[in-house]
Amino acid sequence: xxxxxxxxxxxxxxxxxxxxxxxxxxxxxxxxxxxxxxxxxxxxxxxxxxxxxxxxxxxxxxxxxxxxxxxxxxxxxxxxxxxxxxxxxxxxxxxxxxxxxxxxxxxxxxxxxxxxxxxxxxxxxxxxxxxxxxxxxxxxxxxxxxxxxxxxxxxxxxxxxxxxxxxxxxxxxxxxxxxxxxxxxxxxxxxxxxxxxxxxxxxxxxxxxxxxxxxxxxxxxxxxxxxxxxxxxxxxxxxxxxxxxxxxxxxxxxxxxxxxxxxxxxxxxxxxxxxxxxxxxxxxxxxxxxxxxxxxxxxxxxxxxxxxxxxxxxxxxxxxxxxxxxxxxxxxxxxxxxxxxxxxxxxxxxxxxxxx
Length: 356
Fold this sequence. Notes:
This protein has ten helices and 16 strands. By secondary structure, it is α/β, with parallel strands linked by helices. Strand 6, helix 3 and strand 7 form a beta-alpha-beta unit.
């Protein structure tokens, strides 16, 4: 595969698709037609054609969603992500993935209860929570029916979790504090109105970024998002604690991609596709006034530098230590860092509130 499958550069064009979503392209290659600019609305069909069938759900998956939803609703303590909207206003969201690189930054993330953590909202995806530990994480996050029980050991179950109703309903017995978002199925409009909605884009990172957006954060920092199979300790790794097997490598047809340091690393088409989703939504968040930093330190998430201009915030790839230094400097000077384009962001908030 060519390098542009992995290294998304800021030379895409935004053109509306027939369904109303935005087509971000690299040259003539579509980045991801399922990605669109985030909204504070809980209606996933905003801007879409009336007859548009929401992507990605086969009849079998729809059946799973409906069955899991019934299971979750047997619990009388379901809460909605609507409760979390604007709770992170002015803060920095650290979205922690579960690649091997998460181990490089885990000790650099401040513990909860410290002044340094007060400016943060740490959202840990899937196995990322196990890597960081409960003392670092504000919210666990998982997307769907593919959630795995080993991602949620007992020492993490006192944490609040953000999840969809199509996650295994067993999670309802694990966590006391659960914030749900409803599916985009048309018949579940009442569920979206009650609990809230986060957009779906094939990967938990995309949906979690929408959660950060609705929390009102001014900055998103990606960590543990390599989109490659990291060589470490003489082995290749999938998740940070999951060494690769020959069976896995054969099944996923591994090849090589160029990381953002210019070195070849093992990867595959699935990871390339997911990296492009995260890159595209990073640029779109920048367009909407949220600074985005890839601080993973390695991998193929080739986010290119975008200077702040025309109401857009910076999008960049820097070491995690530098990203944290930016936050520290804001705290020390106490002048506060206003993300570029705050008026645009707050207008959107006021429109959202006036419509409630």
